[in-house]
Design goal:
Elements: H1 8-25, H2 30-37, H3 41-50, E1 60-65, E2 71-77, E3 82-87, H4 101-109, E4 126-130, E5 133-143, E6 148-153, E7 158-164, E8 176-177, E9 183-187, H5 205-208, E10 211-219, E11 224-225, E12 231-235, E13 240-245, E14 253-258, H6 275-278, E15 284-291, H7 292-300, E16 305-307, E17 310-313, H8 315-320, E18 324-330, E19 336-338, E20 344-348, E21 354-359, H9 360-369, E22 374-375, E23 381-382, H10 385-388, E24 389-394, E25 399-404, E26 410-415, E27 420-425, E28 430-436, E29 441-447, E30 456-463, E31 479-485, E32 492-499, E33 507-511, E34 525-526, E35 531-532, E36 543-547, E37 550-558, E38 561-563, E39 566-570, E40 573-581, E41 590-594, E42 600-603, E43 608-615, E44 619-624, E45 637-643, H11 661-687, H12 694-708, H13 710-722, H14 726-756
Parallel strand pairs: 12-17, 37-40, 39-45
Antiparallel strand pairs: 1-2, 1-33, 2-3, 4-5, 5-6, 6-7, 8-9, 9-10, 10-11, 10-12, 13-14, 14-15, 15-18, 16-17, 19-20, 20-21, 21-24, 22-23, 25-26, 26-27, 27-28, 29-30, 30-31, 31-32, 34-35, 36-37, 37-38, 40-43, 41-42, 41-44, 44-45
The structure holds [4Cu:2S] cluster (CUK) and dinuclear copper ion.
């Protein structure tokens, strides 16, 4: 490797001086600040517990449902700093999600009966598990309104797959994963005919309307759900709600509750009392207990029927073969959560003041002994509540969801009506502490708190209302995520975080150290299929292929250049542009758009993306890079020329700028000066063990690529100078300088990285 350059050097020095100057003015003490901002000791303690100084990182990463936005929000804990939004069921412009052809293909999987759906009602994210513990590989999330599940790969935080439930019309009890992510569970909510596009009157609710629980088979190696190996357990129209999978001793089983075992049909306009009255009339609903391993065997043995091409295990089969059991649960319950050791199943009563703790051992004993109190109208065996309960604990008004602590037997339950979190002992059955939160908590989340290995430490209360909490922003308020310290006996409220993207029903948080996302793709990867992209090319292989009405561009991106710089088409042509980002440097993403054609791509290092459109308007359309990727980012552009059909040029030369020999000489001087800077950076890098730092090696490779282009350009400017064509000579010399600038930028970045990461001198 040879040289490096230039100009960013003075800029870097200037930035450093700015910091020093700021430090000199700050004479305020901690006491002064407390007084000025009216802060108590308790506030300071809370601040110290959440503050993450610049350069330091959060201990946990939360994935929150983005509610009606159909996206996922990623934030750090304890700082509560938002890190990313992941486009899932809806377009996300920054990531090009829904604006490039590759991601559109993912969104198109979410079409229902061919119809594009541009929103989602996301509820429950779930992280993939191995032995019941979060493994940090995949994230799943459901869409309640349009029954769908999405798969997000945590290697790149991109949505890879959307599957539509072929037999449900809505769903709520997903996504929850089994102990080794064998299946992703998705339970229906509002009953409807499973045939789907079939009409039956509401009077036939009991006979023709059904609920169900779908088990989506997950292929971890492929990172995709396999619909053909998935199945649904048909269930009565009891309005199935949340679910959870067994673990440890209860592995192979899963639990889904329901809140309208009344099978009530409202219709206030016909004089019947409304749904809310009819569905909460009885004292109990049914917890559904399912042996999914058994169901899997039966499906493999051909006992399922096909509805809309999907395996459905009929209620009769599930009831007869020991797949499905019911247990009464009080009263219009909401959350069902399995304890970390897999021995207990906790149900929040919603309209009851209790949490009910069911014992898996007792349930199994009743099933083994054939001890059932009755059968429901569909022939499903019902286990007596007393025979299955471990204990019931009076927690307060509106218990909803439960999460677990690292400490044995300690759980936290949200109390919706009381707006409190109850900390309690589910083994002994006693309340330990309570803390008031802001209005109307729904879900709550502890760190890895629904896994076999909860980490304790923090709890986040996901509150539905924000009322007076934040600076007003109109009648639609943000939601309020409140961070609570749970490491001591008494809970302490630390921080209020407004979440502005939709109602985030649930969130999950994982130790940051378990996430190992990549920083670049293997060059030429289609990130949405994880396969080599057929449109990828390497440097020097760029081409434009015109065939009939199709103009297909195989281009590349590298600072600060789009190859090709001109694309010509005729009105009506289909334009397909494949772009490969050749960068290896971390965070060197380029964006791409074409004026007014509504396409956008985010092309991270190594990725290949396609944008497609019909050039249906004659005209001149600049295309450009949309990420500020280098000092010459604004110059990273080109023109799409859409010509009228049959157009012929009349003028064939471009206007000249009139450069002189003096211009050429000045450029050569600039090149020589820059070379000196490059040489000094290279001298530093090669004097240390840079090869031990893969990120630096990648940057050095990228820089070398740039420098390797210089001889070609140099030959051109020297030849032009010999012919006294100062225009060409000066421009090619400028191009040499461009390569130097990019190489120098990388070199300086590499140097900074090495200095900050303890590079050592080598002999
Ligand atoms: S549901 Cu929203 S608060 Cu969808 Cu999990 Cu309980
Ligand atoms: Cu590439 Cu801006």
């Amino acid at each position: 490797m040879k040289p490096f350059t230039q100009r960013t050097v003075p800029l870097l020095i200037a930035a450093g001086m700015g910091l020093a100057a700021a430090a000199a003015w700050s004479a305020e003490t901690l006491q002064d600040v407390m007084k000025r901002r009216n802060l108590s000791q308790q506030d300071l303690l809370a601040a110290a517990k959440t503050y993450v100084p610049t350069g330091k990182r959060d201990e946990f990463v939360a994935f929150s449902s983005g509610g009606q936005s159909g996206q996922v929000i990623v934030y750090g804990i304890p700082s509560m700093r938002i890190l990313k939004y992941i486009g899932v069921f809806t377009p996300e412009p920054w990531q090009g999600y829904g604006y490039d052809a590759n991601s559109k293909a993912v969104l198109d999987q979410g079409r229902i009966d061919g119809k594009e759906i541009t929103w989602g009602d996301t509820h429950h994210p779930a992280i993939s598990e191995t032995n019941g513990k979060y493994d940090g590989q995949f994230l799943f999330i459901n869409d309640k309104a349009n029954p769908r599940i999405a798969v997000i790969d945590l290697r790149d935080f991109e949505t890879k797959q959307i599957v539509v439930n072929p037999v449900f019309k809505s769903e709520h009890g997903g996504a929850f994963v089994t102990e080794n992510t064998e299946y992703v569970i998705e339970a229906a909510q509002y009953p409807a005919p499973l045939e789907n596009k079939k009409f039956y009157p509401l009077e036939e609710m009991n006979e023709k309307y059904r609920g169900g629980i779908t088990y989506w088979k997950f292929d971890r190696k492929e990172g995709r759900i396999v619909p053909a190996e998935s199945f649904t357990i048909e269930a009565p129209p009891y309005w199935q709600d949340l679910s959870d999978a067994g673990k440890g001793p209860s592995h192979g089983w899963a639990f889904t509750n329901s809140f309208c075992a009344e099978r009530y049909v409202g219709g206030i306009e016909k004089g019947r009392p409304p749904y809310e009255a009819g569905c909460s009339a009885k004292d109990t609903d049914y917890l559904h207990v399912m042996n999914w391993k058994k169901a899997e065997e039966l499906v493999k043995a051909g006992k399922a029927k096909k509805i809309n091409g999907h395996n459905v295990l009929p209620i009769e089969v599930a009831a007869k073969e020991g797949v499905l059991f019911l247990i009464p649960e009080p009263k219009s319950p909401h959350g069902v959560d399995v304890s970390p050791d897999g021995k207990f199943i906790i149900v929040g009563g919603k309209l009851d003041t209790h949490a009910s703790v069911y014992s898996f051992d007792k349930i199994m004993a009743a099933i083994k002994a054939g001890k059932f109190e009755s059968k429901d109208p569909y022939g499903i065996p019902v286990i007596g509540m007393k025979d299955a309960l471990h204990t019931q604990v009076q927690l307060g008004l509106g218990p909803l969801h439960t999460q677990f602590d690292a400490k044995k037997c300690v759980a936290y339950t949200s109390l919706y009506v009381d707006s409190q979190v109850a900390k309690w002992d589910y083994c002994e059955g006693k309340v330990l502490d309570k803390i008031s939160v802001h209005y109307n908590i729904g879900h709550l989340m502890t760190m890895e708190g629904d896994s076999a290995d909860p980490q304790g430490r923090y709890l986040v209360a996901l509150n539905k209302l924000a009322i007076d909490r934040f600076v007003p922003v109109g009648p639609l308020h943000p939601q309020n995520h409140q961070l609570i310290d749970i490491s001591n006996d008494k809970m302490q409220l630390l921080y209020d975080m407004p979440l502005p993207l939709g109602e985030p029903h649930y969130a999950v948080a994982i130790s940051a150290s378990k996430l190992k996302p990549g920083v670049r793709y293997k060059v030429g990867t289609d990130s949405r299929t994880d396969k080599p992209h057929p449109g990828a090319v390497r440097a020097g292989e760029e081409k434009i292929v015109k065939k009939g009405n199709k103009v297909e561009v195989f281009g590349t991106l590298i600072r600060s250049h789009i190859t090709p710089e001109t694309i010509e088409a005729e009105v009506g042509d289909e334009v397909v542009i494949h772009l490969t980002n050749l960068e290896r440097a971390q965070d060197e993403t380029h964006g791409f758009t074409v004026s007014t054609y509504n396409v956008h791509a985010s092309v991270e290092p190594g990725k290949t993306v396609t944008v497609k459109f019909k050039a249906d308007k004659e005209g001149v359309y600049p295309y450009y890079c949309t990420e500020f990727c280098s000092a010459l980012h604004l110059e990273m552009m080109g023109y799409l020329l859409v010509k009228p059909k049959g157009w012929k040029p009349t003028k064939t030369t471009l206007a000249k700028a009139g450069y002189t020999e003096a211009d050429y000489k000045a450029t050569l001087k600039k090149v020589a000066d820059t070379q000196a800077v490059i040489d000094s950076v290279v001298a530093y890098i090669t004097s240390v063990n840079y090869k031990d730092f893969p990120d630096v090696v990648a940057m050095v490779e990228d820089a070398t690529d740039q420098l390797n282009k210089i001889p070609e350009a140099k030959k051109k400017h020297e030849a032009a100078a010999a012919a006294k064509d100062w225009e060409q000579a000066n421009l090619w010399a400028e191009q040499v300088w461009q390569y130097q600038v990019k190489a120098a930028d990388l070199g300086l970045r590499a140097k900074t990285y090495l200095e900050q990461n303890g590079a050592k001198k080598i002999k």
